[in-house]
Design a protein that fits this description.
Order of helices and strands: HHHHHH
Helix content: over 70%
Strand content: under 5%
Structural class: mainly alpha
């Protein structure tokens, strides 16, 4: 995965529009579906919980299907890119302890994955205005830079591929 520049203002605007549209659709469609089911299949006594649940689940499936079908649309480009970046960083985070051990032993692929994680995390956190933990990220980056200097390695994050993580 390549790290690309994202226009923060446009990303936030489009993300907010997608969230509002999804929530609005979920509310309206789940009510319409559940009320239609209740109308055609009324219960003599008790609640209509199962019809309400079916309405919510059906609406959620429709939202997911519409988002997946339109994920390549230009309007959703930034939103889906950030979602994919979060998934890629999550894969690295789950293996971070093993990566750190391997990096201390001089594994260049581990250092590459860590560099991608730190660079991607910085980009993502600045995009989401999550600047509280940037100091911790700076410390981790300094430690990685020291390892890169110790082993005389240079890493190019454009060479990162999630397949590198399989060996950890």
């Amino acid at each position: 995965m390549l790290l690309i520049e994202i226009d923060k203002k446009r990303y936030r605007q489009r993300l907010n529009m997608v969230i509002v549209a999804c929530i609005s659709f979920l509310v309206v469609s789940s009510l319409v579906i559940s009320q239609t089911l209740i109308y055609f299949f009324p219960a003599q006594q008790g609640s209509h919980f199962h019809w309400n649940l079916l309405g919510v689940v059906s609406s959620a499936l429709i939202v997911v299907a519409v988002l997946i079908r339109n994920k390549k649309h230009a309007f959703l480009h930034e939103v889906f890119y950030v979602w994919q970046l979060k998934q890629a960083l999550n894969l690295i985070t789950r293996k971070m302890l093993k990566l750190q051990k391997a990096a201390k032993m001089g594994d260049k692929n581990a250092m590459l994955a860590m560099q991608f994680s730190y660079t991607g995390s910085r980009k993502l956190w600045l995009l989401d205005d999550n600047t509280l933990t940037l100091d911790n990220l700076d410390e981790a980056q300094l430690a990685l830079t020291a390892l890169l200097l110790k082993y005389n390695f240079t890493v190019d994050i454009t060479q990162y591929n999630s397949a590198l993580l399989k060996s950890f």
